[in-house]
Amino acid sequence: MPKYIFVTGGVVSSLGKGIATSSIGLLIKRHGFNVKPLKLDPYLNVDPGTMNPFQHGEVFVTDDGAETDLDLGHYERFLNQNLSRKNNATAGQIYESLIQKERRGDFLGKTVQVVPHLTDEIKLRIKELVEDEDDIIIVEIGGTVGDIESLPFLEAIRQMRLELGEQNTFFIHVTLVPYIKSIGELKTKPTQHSVMKLREIGIQPDLIICRSERKIGDEIREKISLFTNVPKERVVEMRDLPTIYKAPLILHREKVDHNILKKLGLPPNHGIDLSDWKAFVDRLLHLTDRVKIGIVGKYVDVKDSYKSISEAFIHASVSNDVKVELKYIDSEDLEGTDKIDEFFKDVDGILVPGGFGSRGIEGKIKAIQFARENKIPFFGICLGMQLASIEFARHVLGLKGANSTEFDPKTPHPIITILPDKKGVTKMGGTLRKGAYPAILKPGTMTYDIYGRVREISERHRHRYEFNPAYRLIFERNGMVVSGESPDGVLVEIIELKDHPFFIGVQFHPEFKSRPMRPHPIFHHFVKAAKNRRFSR
Ligand code: GLN
User: Is pLDDT of 193 > 80?
Assistant: First the structure.
C-alpha cells in the first residue's frame, strides 16, 4: 500500500502549488521512491479541452491523448516521467461516473449524496491510480480552501487520513504571507484563517509552505506555528524565485523532503544527489548572451496559454548557453501594417504556435512570409505548420485563395482540410487527433539530422485538420520537403524548406516532450539557428 501526500492551497490561487507539488515529487523520487502525481480539479468541465486557454492556461496533452491541466506539464518536466489520463481527474469526470452508476441502478434505491457517494467516488479515482510498485502518491487539489466546489475533495482526503492513519498520509498547505508595504510588515492572518478553514473541515496540515516576497523570520514562523498547530520546523518559506526550477533546491534546503519522510516513517537517502539539477539551475541563472524569439499568436492575456512552449525555450536556453527572450507579438497587429519589419527588427527567430479559430490568421501568414523571404529562422507548431503550408501555396505556388477549410470552407485550394477516414466518409465535424503518434523521418533532411538520424519518432498531437495529400507533389516539386510523415505515408507530419537556414513546421506539439535536461531537439536547433543569426548580424 502506498503512502499519500496531499497538497492544498489557501488564501489566493496561483501560489505555485503545482510547482511545489512537482518539486516535492522530484525530491521524494531522488530519495529513491516511486512517486506518482495526481491533480484533482474541482471544476465541472469533464476536461480542460473545451476551456479557453487564455483564461485557464494551456491544455497539456499526454501520450494517451488526454487533455489535461497544465500542472501535468510541470509534473512531467520535474519528475521526468510520462503521465496519462489517470493523473488528472476533474469534478466533471467524477460526477459523470457517479451519475452513470446511479442510472445503472447501482445504488439500489438509496439516496445518492455528496457524502458518502461522491466522496467515495473521489477516493476511488485516487486509488485507481495505484499500482504495486508505487511508494508515494502525491495528490494536488486544485482551487483554494474555502471554495464551495473543493469541499467534497477536502472531505474525501480527510476521510483518507482516518482510513489510512497518520503514518500513511501527509498534508501540505501552501499559503500566502503578504508583505504590507505601508507598514513594512509581513502578515500572518491570511494564513491563520486559511488553516482555520482547513481545520474546520477536519484537516490538520502537517506542513505549511509560505509563499512570500520577503524573508520569513523566526518570529513569523513561530507565530504561524502557534496559530496553526504545525511544528515550527515545518513552517517553510518559499520566496519568489528567479526560476521555478530553483524550487526543489529551496524546499530541500528547508528540509521539506526529510520532514515528510520522517513523518511517513520512510528512510531518507542521506546521500541524495541533486547535482545535475543544481548545475542546470546554475547555468540557467548565469546565461550572458541573449537571443530574441518572436512568438506570433493571439493574445488576450499571454499568461499561461503557451506554458510548455516557454518552458521548452528555457530548456533550449541552457543547452545552447544563451538566454532566450520571448517577444510576444499579437498577430492582429500585423494585419493592418505595411511596416512589418518594425515588429521583427530585434528578433532572431520567429515561432508561430498552435491555435484554433480564424482570428489573427492573416497576420500569422504575413509573419511566416517575412521569415521565409528574409531567411529568418522559423518554427511552426501545429496551426503554425498549417499556416506555413498556406503561405507557401499562396506566395510560392501562386495558388490564389489557398486556405484551410477551418477558416474558409469554400476555399478553391484547401491546402489544410479534414481528411476522409478509411471508409471514405468525412467524420461529422471531424474529431481531434490527440496524443502520441509515430512519424517516419526522411533521411537527408534537416529534420532527420536534428532528431539524431533516427527513422521513427513519436510526438503528441491535438488538432482536427491535416495537410491535404492532393497538394503534396506540387509542394515537393517546388522546394518544400516533407521530412516526416505517418507510417502509412498519408499524413504530412513535418515540412521543411530547402535553401533556408531553418524553416520547419510540425503538425504535432513538440513542446510537450521537452524536459529540463533533455531539451526537445527541434527547440534546441531552432535556438541554435537563432543564435547563429544573432552572432552573424
Ligand atoms: N486549428 C487547427 C486544427 O484543428 C490547429 C490546432 C492546433 O494548433 N493545436 O487542426
Answer: yes
Q: Which of 117, 413, 500, 509 is catalytic?
A: 509
Which amino acid is residue 91, in one-letter code? A
Handedness of CA 115, 121, 127, 129 (dihedral sign): negative
Q: Ligand 1: which residue has its CA nearest to atom 6?
A: 463
- Residue ranges of alpha helices (H) inside 408-507 are 446-450, 472-477
For a substitution probing ligand 1, which of 358, 364, 406 has the most ligand atoms within 8 Å of its CB?
A: 406
Q: Is 115 helix (H, G, I), strand (E, B) or coil?
A: helix
| Residue in 76, 485, 511, 520 annotated catalytic | 511
**Measured in angstroms, how far is the CA atom of residue 440 from the centroid of ligand 1?**
21
Check residue 490 and report its DSSP letter. Answer: -
For residue 336, what pLDDT is reported? 86
Is a pLDDT exceeding 80 seen at residue 93?
yes
Whole-model pTM? 0.94
Residue pair 363/332 in contact by the 8 Å Cβ criterion: yes
The pocket around ligand 1, CB under 6 angstroms, is made up of: 354-356, 382-383, 406, 462-465
Q: Which atom of ligand 1 is nearest to the CA of 432?
A: 4
Ligand 1 midpoint to CA 129 (Å)? 31
Owner of C-alpha cell 507598514: 183
- Known catalytic residue at 382: yes
210 catalytically annotated: no
Query: Rounded CA gap, 500 and 482, in Å?
Result: 15
pLDDT tens string 484-529: 999 999 999 999 999 999 999 999 999 999 999 999 999 999 999 9
Residue 500 is among the residues annotated as catalytic for this protein: no
Instruction: Give me ligand 1 centre to Cα 479, in Å.
Output: 24
Q: Which of 256, 45, 305, 259 is nearest to 149 (CA)?
A: 45
Rounded CA-CA distance 453/259 in Å is: 46
Q: Is 25 helix (H, G, I), strand (E, B) or coil?
A: helix
Site of grid cell 523520487: 29
Nearest CA among 515, 511, 476 for reference residue 492: 476
pLDDT at 383 over 90: yes
Cα of 414 from ligand 1 centre, angstroms:
15
Average pLDDT over residues 16-25: 96
CA of 475 to the centre of ligand 1 (A): 21
What would the pLDDT profile of 422-466 be if each residue is shown by its tens digit? Answer: 555 555 455 889 999 999 999 999 999 999 999 999 999 999 999
Domains and CATH numbers, the chain: 3-280 (3.40.50.300), 287-536 (3.40.50.880)
Closest atom of ligand 1 relative to the 356 alpha carbon = 1
Q: Which ligand 1 atom is at minimum distance from the Cα of 353? A: 8
Q: Does 301 score more than 60 pLDDT?
A: no
Q: How confident is the model at residue 179 (pLDDT cuts 50, 70, 90)?
A: very high
Task: Kindly give, in sequence order, each residue whose CB lies less than 8 Å from that of residue 196, ignoring residues fewer than 6 positions away.
Answer: none
> Which atom of ligand 1 is closest in space to residue 416's alpha carbon?
10
